[in-house]
Fold this protein.
Amino acid sequence: MLVIIERQPTIAFFSFQLINMKQKRTALSPEEQKLFGDLMPEELEEVLDSGLHRRHFLKLMSLATAGLLASHLIGAEQLFARAADIDDIQDLIPGAIENGVNLSFNVNSKATKVLVDSRMTLLDTLRERIGLTGSKKGCDHGQCGACTVIVDGNRVLSCLTLAATCEGKSVITIEGLAKGNELNPMQAAFLKHDGFQCGYCTPGQICSAVALMKEAKEGQASFVTKDIRAQQQGILLTDEEISERMSGNICRCGAYPNIVAAIKEAQTGKSVEQNWLFVG
Amino acid sequence: MNPFKFSMAQNQSQAVNMLVSNNSAALLGGGTNLLDLMKEHVAAPTELIDITRLELKTIEKNALGISLGALAKNTDTANHPIIRSDYPLLSKAILAGASAQIRNMATNGGNLLQRTRCSYFYDIAMPCNKREPGSGCAAMEGFNRMHAIFGWSDQCVAVYPSDMAVALSALRASVRVLQQDGSSRNIAFDDFHILPGQHPEKDNSLKHGELITSIEIPENKLAAHSAYVKVRDRNSYAFALVSVAAGLALEGARIGDAHISMGGVAHKPWRALKAEAFLKGKTASTANFRAAAKAEMAAAKPLSHNKFKVEMGINSITNALEMALKG
Ligand SMILES: Cc1cc2nc3c(=O)[nH]c(=O)nc-3n(C[C@H](O)[C@H](O)[C@H](O)COP(=O)(O)OP(=O)(O)OC[C@H]3O[C@@H](n4cnc5c(N)ncnc54)[C@H](O)[C@@H]3O)c2cc1C
Ligand code: SF4
Ligand code: FES
Ligand code: FES
């Protein structure tokens, strides 16, 4: 479950920037210090004294906690997933790349400026340039939903969105759903119901499900809606409705029954039993 | 992806001018089809003109029916209160396509212009007359299970994939286009998409430099009796093997007018003209529905791997008409 930020711009051109970035590595946040102290109290002093910085800390944590990080420490993921070094990226010289586009938008409630190649998708921009690696690249062709993010309130596929089209827009990714260490109810429901196995599709599933709650509230219809002409707001979604409306998110591990249960629980706020009936 | 210049159009005439001044420029709607094709090097425009900020997003009633802005999203169109109550066939067809995420991105204009999903078209190592005129058609003797049974030519056997367009065909819509000289023209839906003939590289009658501004649907009496049936390899998020949009304008127990179009069977939405003609004035009954379906499908010319589509077509038309009758 541990998300490590490894920002390695794939474009060789950017490598000269790395030297600059490394010097400006941000220090550990108080929350990160506390978490580290809880897990490895003896090492904390040493880590702080030796002036280890965040990137090293994250690497250390990944080694130290492999297999150790119980799900009650899930909030740790949020800490690690905060974007690093966003300021460094702004330093790029605009004319330095062919067809560069200067982009200002809002990512997880933070005003963000970044120079992108016109060809760059929103997904690659989030992952490679802004350090938000929660959104996943499953297929890069709109066929799996792993890259789902919420743009101006609506779920979309970041792999088929050009970053340049996001000027002035507001993007929410999986990293932006929790409030501090408090999980979004949909995240909590996915945890409770084991709405995942390998977890690869999960950020997309959760972003998709969060936006689905808004769609249901607004009364949007789906292909399985019984009477499309009758219109009402605040629809309570049946299993069939959830499956149809979540069909844009493929789960190779087949955690579907758990995902449906989690979404039901998040929507109703009531404890939901899993439905193990496989309809074929 | 090839390098391209990214431009944003502020208004319609600017979009057209930008397009006219660069022969290899393309308009960018939701990008859900164009970007995919660019990643596969099937499309390689040197300039993308983002038109999503144009004010062509309204859906409004007019004297003749309803007008759908070309830049309105598929989701907003399917969920518009008037579309849901008066043109539910369109809502259903849109919602049968793609996924919630893609429908949130896809524009009405872009949907009409989406290209075939023929896998040989997508694979640049394969011959394909649509992608590269004169190179041959890999599907003709290859895997053509998903391909056409009507209207194909010796050059191309691809099918056109849009669900939305099948409903628009049944609803006898038209497409409004802004031309290079600033004037507009209306293209009847039947004439908008074209059969492959000797020029499969062309999907429709739009010219470079033209901008779709809206889709116009005439008023109809089908709302209470329409249905969209889509048969596919999985329950959701899959393209149609066969789909049918059906609407019945009833006069008592008799059919005043039947509207039937099919998807997944041809290079364009296939108006089932023979079935429509057969049903006019007849009693609305399963026997008549099946007879009409058979009359339509008798002219089908299946390929080596898609003979099943003929029987599937008969059943799907019958089924859609029964559902439409029930309401
Ligand atoms: C995985 C997947 C599954 C899908 N499943 C289905 C399905 O089951 N059924 C279905 O119907 N569709 C399906 N789709 C296709 C989807 O509906 C289309 O990609 C979408 O409707 C295209 O709209 P867009 O706005 O994104 O078009 P774009 O990709 O932006 O544009 C498509 C084309 O239209 C041109 N264009 C756009 N707007 C205009 C305009 N106003 N005037 C002139 N030219 C214009 C562009 O230049 C481009 O050539 C699927 C897509 C994916 C990726
Ligand atoms: S069917 Fe058409 S699109 Fe497919 S390979 Fe043949 S020419 Fe190309
Ligand atoms: S990575 Fe975007 S849909 Fe698969
Ligand atoms: S949890 Fe593994 S793909 Fe969904």
Summary: Confidence is low (pLDDT under 50) at residues 1-26, 63-86 of chain A.
